[in-house]
Amino acid sequence: MTATRLHIMRVNIKHSGKTHSIEVDPSKPATTFKDAIYQATGVPTDRMKVMIKGVLKDDADLSNLGLKPDQNITVVGTAGPLPSAPTQQITFLEDMDQDQIALAEGNPAGLVNLGQTCYLNSTLQALKTIPQLNVALDGYSTTAGTPESKVTNSLKNLFSGLNQTADAVPPFAVLSNLRILAPQFAETDNAGRYSQQDADEAWTQLLSALKLSLGQSGGNESIVDKMMGLELTSKIQCAEAPDEPPTTSKERQLKLQCNISINTNFLSSGILDSLNQQIEKTSPTLGRMAQYTSESRLSRLPQNLVVHMVRFYWRRDIQKKAKIMRKVKFPLQFDTIDLATEEVRSQIQPVNSAVKEILKERDDRAKIIKRNAGKATSDDATKEVDIRREERQKVEALVKEKGIDSETNVSGMYELYAMVTHKGASADSGHYIGWTRKENELPVASGQEEWYKFDDDKVSIVTADKILSMDGGGENSVAYILLYR
């Protein structure tokens, strides 16, 4: 008994985006191990594929597989009761198309288009990637009957449902409650069909409802402000009266704007253009209207940073929103330290440098894996867990030493995690698609990170090179809302 227990170890079972830690005894039959996986994941053993040096067979000898503590093991299969005998011919993995493979591997569920609702579907998929929002929704409970609370409750139920299925889900409740909250989303055309709407307007309305419903996290700060609220400190100086003392003010917002002009080539320059403005107001020293320069910088860096690419403007001649097609490059890793106030910049500089070094080292490890034909061993996975633990400890020590608010972005470095794109020439037409980053336990070569593409109910996988290619220049899909975290 004692000798047998010495073999027992814990391994990490990866299934449908979740990780389960279970015990395995290599001296026991493989079927015992599969039963333990079933208890954790709900995937019946008859439809379960355990990926250890290929697919684990029932008669395999676990003691010969070299299992190691905390090893990551992928399990493929759908949880639930056993299916009836197949009525169609079995399709093997190598014969599946991209969408079929996505379903077989437990990729996230898509959303059914309920009639010109791609603007909402793409927005919902991006919102769902915010970890703090999911936690807040899980704990949400109310008896209030306000339109905002109904939207929030329907979001909670939708996100919960998406986590429990691989089939596309129709967002009926969210859509109907949104149309009650903001009637413009119920507009129809001359034929009585629902009109296309703006994804950014849907994003704004949903966050407004969440902010009112989810309440406060402590003090006077709302939960939504805590997770994604940025603070701008503005300095206003009279250009015509240099001796006039400047005024400063602070403002909270939930997103940055990236203005796009004929000179805008990069995301950072478009954001700076929106932060640096020329305004006209009354000068107390000159006694008349005068020109002022307003320079705003980030005095609070949120954990989740939203950037709205301002691509639509109103054209009076055609009486509708037209689209700015200009190519504007955006990064997968976004360093915002130059957008911060001097005080914030000096505070986070050491952490910023440390995180850049960590990212460089990860890129070096990814190149080694790529040189090995992209194959990573279980030793690589085990080492990566230890390395990332040390990375976190290094950053946490610096944060504590510098006294930085740990509920903000402590380094100024962000990673692109979700995106909404628009295809077409007008906000009143075209097509919206959502894109979200896929989690990786091991470092991946730059540009090869995998992303999910949510084209309504169709879910597929692309690489980051595809994401970076959607920077504008035509009527094809172009980045519209960027979510960094």
From TrEMBL:
Known catalytic reactions: Thiol-dependent hydrolysis of ester, thioester, amide, peptide and isopeptide bonds formed by the C-terminal Gly of ubiquitin (a 76-residue protein attached to proteins as an intracellular targeting signal)
CDD domains reported in the protein's UniProt record: Peptidase_C19A
GO biological process: proteasome-mediated ubiquitin-dependent protein catabolic process; protein deubiquitination; regulation of proteasomal protein catabolic process
Residue span(s) of domain Ubiquitin-like: 9-76
Residue intervals passing through the bilayer: none
InterPro entries associated with the record: Papain-like_cys_pep_sf, Peptidase_C19_UCH, Ubiquitin-like_dom, Ubiquitin-like_domsf, UBP14-like, USP, USP_CS
Top-level lineage group: Eukaryota
EC identifiers of the protein: 3.4.19.12
Keywords from the UniProt entry: Hydrolase, Protease, Thiol protease, Ubl conjugation pathway
One Pfam short name: ubiquitin
Cited PROSITE patterns: UBIQUITIN_2 (PS50053), USP_1 (PS00972), USP_2 (PS00973), USP_3 (PS50235)
SMART domains: UBQ (SM00213)
GO molecular function term, any single one: proteasome binding
Enzyme class: hydrolase
Domain USP: 109-485
Family note: Belongs to the peptidase C19 family.
Name of the molecule in the record: Ubiquitin carboxyl-terminal hydrolase
Organism: Kwoniella dendrophila CBS 6074
Highest classification ranks of the organism: Eukaryota, Fungi, Dikarya, Basidiomycota, Agaricomycotina
